[in-house]
Amino acid sequence: MAEHLGLLEACVVVGASNDKLKELYESLQQENPVPLPLLDPEVLHVHAPPFVTKENITEPGIGHFSRGQRRRSFIKKKNNRPGLAPGNTKSSEGCTGDVSVPKDLDLVALPQLCFPGGLQVSKEPKDDHFHFLVFTDVFGNQTHGVVVQYYRLIQINQVFQEGVQHQNGHVHKHPQFYAPYGVCIISKHPYYTALKDCLSCLLGQLKTCRMADLDERVKEFSAKLALVPIPPPGILHVMFALRPLTIVLPSREDKDRPVVDLDLHLPFLCFTPRVLLQIITSILTEQRLVFFSSNWARLTLMAECFMLYIHPLRWQHPLVPTLSRQMLDFLMAPTAFLMGCHLSHYKEVAKETDDLILISVDEGTISSDHVDIPEPPRAAAECFKRRQNGLHLHYDVEAVHQGACMDINDLRMRRRRWQENLNWEIQKVTLEFIVNILRDVSDHLNYEHRVFNTEEFLKTREPVDQPFYKKVLESHIFHSFLKDRLSRKTDAFTRMELSTRTEAQKMKAGIENPRRPTMQEMARKYSCPENRLSKRLGASLPNLGEEKHLSIPRHASLTKAIPDVSLDIPAKQIKIFKLPDFPPPLVYQYVHHYYGEVTHQLGKAMASLPTGDSSLLARYYYLRGLVNTLNSKRLEALSDFQNLYKTDIELFPGELVRTLVDSMQKEEKAQAERRPELKRLLCKLKSDEKSELGADDHVKKFQLPKSSMHLEEFVTCIQESGIVRDMATIHRLFEALTDGQQKVVDPELFRVFYTFWRETEAEAQDVHLPSEVIEHLDNNECVYKLSSSVKTNHGVGKIAMTQKRLFLLTEGRPGYVEITKFRDIEEVKISAASFLLLRIPSLKIKSSLRKEVFEANLKSECDLWSLMIKEMWAGRRMTDDHKDPQHMQQALTNVLLMDAVVGCLQSPKATIAASKLAYYDKMKKEVPMMVPKTTVEALKHRINPSLCMTTPQTVDVLLYTPGQLLLSDSDLNGTPKLWCALRHGMVVVFDAASWSMQQNCIQVGTKQLNCMLGLDQEQVWIGSQDSVIYIINTRSMSCHKQLTDHRAEVMDFALEEKSSKYSHTQVYSCSADGFVIVWDALTLKVKKQFHLDCEGLKFLKLYNGTLWCGARDCIMEVRKSGALHRKLSLPEAVMSTNATFSSFLLLVEKGEIWTSFSDSGELCVWALTDVTAPSNRIILPECTGVTCMIRVKDQIWVGCHGSSPMPSSVSGKIFVLDSESCSVRKELQAHTDSVQALCSAEDRYVFSGSAKHDGKIAIWKVE
Q: What integer is the mean pLDDT of 1116-1126?
């Protein structure tokens, strides 16, 4: 289990065997010596952990590593060998005997990879040479290797004594020969620079030691590296001393990023920006790439750099950056791959193979004679080049002002800091490139059915970019990326995509309009010279609908012009933990003591941390848990990993902990069961394991149906197509398409409907309005419908419909005539206009702002236009009356669906069928739409937290968090936010300044959420039905901590502010089983806990040092110690109705408690001096129960539910009461379902959230 927790996987020595060296030497002593041949390298020694174990503590030779069950033999051929000279016994045994190899390590190809150019004896010693390796198993798991080649003087049978041989008293000089040896460190982690430094330290020892001591030196070196733990993701690096160097292991940026321990700017020095982008494009389109270089070390480093450039995308194919001479036939593989070989093979490879992309690192060139490399998206490429120009790639230029450094380790530290900063800048630039090319993918995803609409996404790309996207969308890389997006993974891509959104993109995320170009985008699109001179401007406006053949950029991407958004994302401040010096003799007692010293040092580091630094504390816990695991202290390791729940749950190593638990002895498991925190951990591991088994990660591509569809299949198909998501709208569409027929939709009918919808959407991208027209419209307006050329009382032209108005595009000289805005319409009717002997249908529209009625002879289009305009008119009225812009968006969707239904049915009854989609027009006729004046005056706005879901969801909890004035406006954390808890642990976050949706889904568990608390503008605490308190970091918008001490669902929080500058804020939490826990808000430690004897504890409030707790059957005043002071019980009148307390408020200055009840429309006011019976009762009209109650200034806002005979009428009311007179000031018709949650925004606004039949949030002004 522990073999992958340390730095070292194995250390292998490779070279020629003594037998072959002796045979070669003898042939070279002949009068006609043969040329120096290439020898076959062999594995000479293998050293892998564990080196010492507790079991062999009493055995002789304790310093040697154990060869246990996890090793097998690597058998080398044994030929008849002559005897060896004395003094080389140990070395010879290592070279010729069985070499012990870890059972999961395959070394068959390693000798060739350690000497990819071949092993050849030399007459002179050559310089040491490093190169790097990557091994990939069949499951895609990678192992990394760093190899050093160095030369030693050949000494066989003592024939060489300082290059002199004594024979018959004469001295004869013989030529000296040097044999190369390779030492390879294998690790599961890509620490190329660190391992290279380690080997550099080892080289100094190997060059001065005898051959007989080489194995022992390498073994001791390997055992030291096996003691080095891998740092956890985040801000903590690990440092250790390996004389004469101090070596640093950098940590990963986060758990999803790989380790970066190489110079990421090397490709920028070798290739031009154009070639760099071509290579990245070739990787993204999964070509067959081969890197060439005369320096073996460059190959792997280049390949690894490009793998990091495409992160978080992952290369899914063979990656073999170093091919030996014997492996060149690998290049004939039919699949995509990325490989590398020596530059000397370039011509041979180019001649013998086709369809390869050949990249010369030395020349900085790329050759693809038989492969067409598509150009990357133009806007993203230009942004990449612009960013690259701002990088500072030359250390000497940056360090020219620095003085000479007297210490080599200080000099290395300077360089490392510069490199880390540069690596961070490069990662931001390359990640931005990936975000820019794939940003719009999310617009074409259906999360419920895990579908990506490839065809529609391609239509939104620029024509010049489509060859690139067609190849990328078919790649395994992109498929894996889709899995992550559909799983709503919060990774580097997600964070940068959110942080680099423009204001328009932020606003777009909060609405669900069909895709159409806005006036602002249209003006920008046609302001380019190449578009300004196109045929479209020379065409007359009446022919707009027939111009599909013109050479106009269709389906323009909304990201065509990428704004120059700042990438000022600072690198995190790094902390370095230095390991103690390695123990000299590697015996069990010393190793055990060493691990103990590491845990002691980590404990001291934790104790010295400032209170509240949970991020660094979590890294220390993780590292200590890792060391305890290596030291077989399983209970201590489990305890450390358990502490990650309170410090940073993102670090929790689930797989490691499960393995740790499986390895525990019965006695250890019994001890763990006796410790409450470990017992909870074991239970949670079992439940998490079950939930992981049911995880779904499939990805579907949208396909048109091939058989008839009933309602259920039709709903799924429409949602997958991306046309509309709302379930109720899809049901109405089904009724329209099956009007008067059997209730199934034929696949051909659906195909025609879908095609008409998409073609209409595409044609809207081609509409070009003259600047004289655009200046009359708002920037965010879009043209959604354009009539054919018709005669009107304002001349001949086309009627255009936006989401706000109707206007006429006049013929001849392009002109603009406003017909009306939808909110100003007074009447729409159809009449018949006489023309010769014919009666032509005419549409008349009366506006409140004009005396003259607009009339248009729409002929066959008249019924459809009348239906659409009435629906938009009704939708606008609903929007204005209810302050809810989604009504207008829904009406617009209904109108476009009507148009598509009429277009695909092509029958006389098509308009009648389409009328079933006229939801708002029908509602206007059936239900009075008048909203009381009191409600209209108080209501400011409505927002829909269920916008990205198929059906409305109940708003369970609301929380407002104020903004931070010290932060810049561009910082998302500086804005006030509204947090909304929905079903199954989903949290939606709105920007309370613009009401745009900032985060559409933060997942915290899978159960209902009961309460939320904002803390220090840095955290939001959320209590769940699953008994866990989830803590969300407001900066990263992720749940990074969990408190698991409660045993029942967490119901409420209360905050106790600091009593002095030296004290800590405390948070009280209560659960349904009657337990109250007091938390230190900084350390998250339990200060105390107590139990209250009550039925279903639900509420918690803290007033003047006294705790008030509300349950279903009583309200209690409790001392901080948990002692009951007094108790208020349900009134007798309420007890008879089986009602329970639903909320309470304490008005200390008035000496009153206000209580409400779940199944009663009555409020009771109690005097604090006498809690035996209420002193006042307030009856709320038409209220069957109170759900929530808050105090705002001198007002009491009460959320209720009532019975309503009509599903669309009001059943959720808010009563605003005067706390002085105890009378109702206002009665607000808030929602069409019961009010579930209320919260206040700085006593200026009140937010109300409703149950699932409404699912909206209303914002009310407080007087």
A: 87
Q: What is the mean predicted confidence (pLDDT) over 140-160?
A: 80
pLDDT band at 1000 (very low <50, low <70, confident <90, very high): confident
| Number of compact structural domains in the chain | 4
- The number of angstroms, rounded, from the C-alpha of 654 to the middle of its chain's C-alpha atoms is 19
Note whether 211 and 275 are same-domain residues.
no
Beta bridge partners, 142, equal 136
**Residue where a domain terminates, one of 636, 670, 685:** 685
CATH number of the domain residue 342 falls in:
3.40.50.11500
Q: 679 and 604 in one domain?
A: yes
List of residues 6+ apart from 441 with CB closer than 8 A: 452, 457, 481, 482, 485
How would you write 425-480 as a 3-class SS string? HHHHHHHHHHHHHHHHHHHHEECCCCEECHHHHHHCCCHHHHHHHHHHCCCHHHHH
852: CATH: 2.30.29.30
Average pLDDT over residues 56-63: 42
The token duo for 280 is 């990245």
129-136 vs 1235-1241, strand pairing mode:
unpaired
The dihedral sign for the CA sequence 537, 539, 544, 546: negative
Asked if residue 888 is part of any domain, the answer here is no
pLDDT tens per residue across span 1001-1018: 889 988 999 999 998 888
Indicate if 225 and 341 belong to the same structural domain. no
The answer on 382 and 324 residing in a single domain is: yes
Of 252, 149, 161, residue with least CA distance to 203: 149
Q: Work out whether the CA dihedral 841, 846, 850, 852 comes out positive or negative.
A: positive
Token pair of 724 as six digits: 């509309």
Residue-wise pLDDT tens digits, 460-486: 899 999 999 999 999 999 999 999 999
Q: In the 8-state DSSP scheme, what is residue 528?
A: S
The domain that holds 147 is classified in CATH as 3.30.450.200
Asked whether residue 158 carries a pLDDT value surpassing 90, the answer given is no
- Tell whether 222 and 287 lie within a shared domain: no
Query: What gap in Å lies between CA 360 and CA 847, rounded to an integer?
Result: 71
Closest residue by Cα to residue 1012 from 1062, 977, 972: 977
C-alpha radius of gyration, the chain, whole number: 37
Tell me the pLDDT tens digit for each residue of 809-818: 988 777 899 9
- Residue 246 CA to residue 238 CA, distance in Å, equals 11
Q: Are residues 605 and 671 in the same domain?
A: yes
Q: Model pTM?
A: 0.85
Residues 188 and 295 in one domain: no
The predicted structure's pLDDT at residue 508? 66
- Answer yes or no: are the C-beta atoms of 483 and 544 closer than 8 Å: no
In a domain, 114, yes or no: yes
Query: What range does the domain containing 321 cover?
Result: 265-397+408-444
- In this structure, of 194-203, 215-224, 738-747, the range with the lowest mean pLDDT score is 738-747
**Final residue of a structural domain among 653, 685, 717:** 685
Residue 904 in domain: no
> What does the pLDDT average to over 395-405?
87
DSSP string, 1211-1248: -EEEEEEETTTTEEEEEEEEESS-EEEEEEETTTEEEE
Measured CA to CA, the distance from residue 514 to residue 866 in angstroms comes to 21
In a domain, 21, yes or no: yes
- How far does Cα 599 stand from its chain's mean position? 33
Cα-Cα-Cα-Cα dihedral sign, residues 752, 758, 759, 764: positive
Q: Which helix (H) or strand (E) element contains residue 384? A: helix 378-389
Question: Strand locations in 724-803, DSSP E?
Answer: 785-786, 790-792, 795-801
Q: Check if the beta carbon of residue 9 is closer than 8 Å to that of residue 79.
A: no
Q: What CA–CA distance (Å, rounded) separates 594 from 600? A: 10
- Please name the residues in contact with 410: beta carbons below 8 A apart, sequence gap of 6 or more: none
Q: Looking at the structure, tell me whether residues 779 and 662 fall in a common domain.
A: no
Token pair, residue 873, equals: 């008119």
